[in-house]
Amino acid sequence: MSQVIDSVPANFSEVFVCCYVNASSKIQIARVTNIANWYFERVVFPGQHLVFEAPAGALLEIHCGMMASAILSDTIPCDRLRMSKEEVLPFELSVQQSETPAFVEREAEPASSPSNESSVVKFMVPTSVAS
Fold first, then answer.
1. Which residue segment(s) compose the domain that 109 sits in?
2. Which residues, in sequence order, are CB contacts of 31 under 8 Å at separation 6+?
3. Is the domain of 19 the same as that of 67?
4. E runs forming strands in 1-131
5. Most buried one in 11, 51, 115, 122, CB count within 10 A?
């Protein structure tokens, strides 16, 4: 699995794929800050699976909070989040198949219009939904 943005520095011999799931109902910030010359930070929405590569010894910090504040709520060793090769394969396949999703333009008329004018709403849907 390639991690293009913020890739792990090349001097690490052991890099593994990890998965963190935000099981809370709040948005979280996931960070790895204990690895020299590497900074990893992502927003993780409720129910989202965050799949990422990390070197041995990395610690994932989970920050929660409201508005402009963030509180460190947990620190998890990344080796506890390590995925087996069997678990990684479906993620690699789905990334390869959906790197550039195609979209189709659709039109819909609103259920009710405040004026007598006819208005059409245009929106984009993925081709997998459009068919």
1. 101-131
2. 39, 40, 41, 42, 60, 61, 63
3. yes
4. 15-21, 28-32, 40-44, 49-55, 59-64, 71-77, 103-108, 121-126
5. 51
DSSP string, 38-73: --EEEEE-TT-EEEEEEETT-EEEEEE-STT--EEE
Do 56 and 107 lie in one domain? The reply is: no
- In whole angstroms, give the CA distance from residue 14 to residue 71: 30
DSSP 3-state assignment of 80? helix
Q: Which two tokens stand for residue 55?
A: 């070197």
For the record, the structure tokens of 109 come out as 């008329």
Using CA atoms, how far apart are residues 64 and 119, in angstroms rounded to an integer?
Answer: 42
Q: Are residues 69 and 113 in the same domain?
A: no
pLDDT in tens, 40-96: 999 999 999 998 988 989 999 999 977 777 889 899 999 999 888 776 666 555 555
Q: Exposed, middle or buried, 27 (CB in 10 Å: 0-12/13-18/19+)?
A: middle
